[in-house]
Amino acid sequence: MKTLQGAAWLVSARMVGRVIDFMTLLVLARALSPADFGLVAVAMTLIFVVEVVSELPLTQVLVRLDNIRKSHLDTAFTLAVLRILLFAFIIGSAAWPFAAVYDDDRLMPLLVALAVGPISRGLYSPGMVKFFRDINFWRGFVTEMSGKICGTALAILFVYLGAGYWAIAINGIASATLATAASYVLAPYRPAFSLKEWPEFANFISWFTVAQFVGALNWQFDRMLMGRFVSRTSLGQYTMANDLAVLPTQTFVAPAMTSVYAALSSVNSDRERLRNAYLKASRFTMMLAAPLCLGISLTSDLIINSLLDTKWVESAAYLEWLALTIVLVPYTQPLQSLVLAVSRADIIFWMNFINLCFNVTLISLGLYFGSIFGVIAARGAMSLIMFAASVAVARSLAGISVKSQFRSLREVAAACVVMTVAVMILRSYLSAINISVYIELVLTSVAGALVYGSVLHILGVRIIQVVEGIVRVKLPEVKG
């Protein structure tokens, strides 16, 4: 039950945060141009890669400890400080060459400013891990919301004061800084420098850091390449579509993985319970995220036309296909929690490495032969490859047969197919009627949700039963 409640807090925090981010995005998108978003997207590729590469799995290490002492927190804080010093040095050194490569002098000061956000996040109170370890995430909800609200307010204020693309940077800086400040209020910690407990961190960090480096290149390679060979306006259109396409996975799936990791770690000694927990988690993520991805794809033109103005119309076509490339991604996300729970961080590296090899090849060919739509096609091929790899790794690592993995998804797949057909038929009917895009979007969304839920019900799937099944994985632990 604590796992379920923890996931609820995490998903709620991400949902509310995404709503705030989305409203901020709409305001900024109407005030700024696609070229402004394209410029910030180029700068964020370097920021994101360096931030992820330098990220240390401090929370993951602390969560696994039987007893967290002050010396553990001091070691984690010291490593975090060393990490942000390295991060600041890399960004400061790379700012001028990066601006020269992309032939845009605005990138240099923008990179320096954007670096403040990750530096602030790196100083987050290590004392919060005590609550994460107990699967108690409401304090994390408060810290994230306080940062989001203040960041949004400042971004909107500055954009209407004429700050231009700097308003996007201010949003990220303020959100991270204020969230970190709030973490020390809710989880007081007196900073102290020590590396006394370094051996507890060393082995876990090595594979994780290498895996993060390769993963960061995977996540940003398309934008890095396109930033050099397509216009800022086209990149801005693509970035906007991508940000909308990944909303389901970032809102519902990603935040819940912290709770899933804690749950899998607690049953990793019981292979049967571990298998059941993983199957239930992966099925539930697909049940939530897959129909949302399909819905975004089926209504991409309505979403862009109703939420943004005409200068973003090109994003609709990108969004339609990008959302489809995300459909299988939710299934791969619980695998990382499984891998970490059984202390096999090396598998993350090898999966990311294989992904990178295909990514570089397919996206480069896609951009060369098909421009932005070629890149989207390459991403679709990559999602299929990584889905197959996830199925194979789960079979090898936890003994979960391919048949049982596909069997757990058959009702979800059937409901998605029926929903897709129903929405397409409804849209063809509504297109012949002269109604507002807002009304059409609402009608289509509601109808799709009703059809999807009804098909699941007819097939015998009850969401409450799925949730109870996840809870039952933890019952012996709770009774003990």
Structure description:
This protein is mainly α and about 475 residues long. Helices cover about 85% and strands about 0% of the residues. It contains 22 helices and no strands. It has helices at about 1-30, 35-55, 60-65, 70-100, 105-115, 115-120, 130-135, 140-160, 165-185, 200-230, 230-245, 245-255, 255-265, 270-300, 300-305, 315-325, 330-340, 345-400, 400-405, 410-430, 435-460, 465-480. It is globular, with a radius of gyration of 22 Å.
Could you give a short description of this structure?
The chain has helices spanning 2-31, 34-54, 58-64, 70-101, 107-114, 116-122, 129-133, 138-160, 166-186, 198-229, 232-245, 247-253, 256-266, 271-298, 300-307, 315-326, 329-341, 345-398, 402-407, 410-430, 437-458, 463-479.
For the structure shown, list the relevant keywords.
mainly alpha, 0% strand, disordered C terminus
Please give the oligomerization state of what you see: single chain
Indicate the proportion of strand residues.
Answer: under 5%
Q: Report the principal-axis shape.
A: globular
Low-pLDDT sequence parts: 473-480
Number of helices: 22
Order of helices and strands: HHHHHHHHHHHHHHHHHHHHHH
Radius of gyration: 22 Å
Distance between the termini: 13 Å
**Structural class computed from helices and strand pairing:** mainly alpha
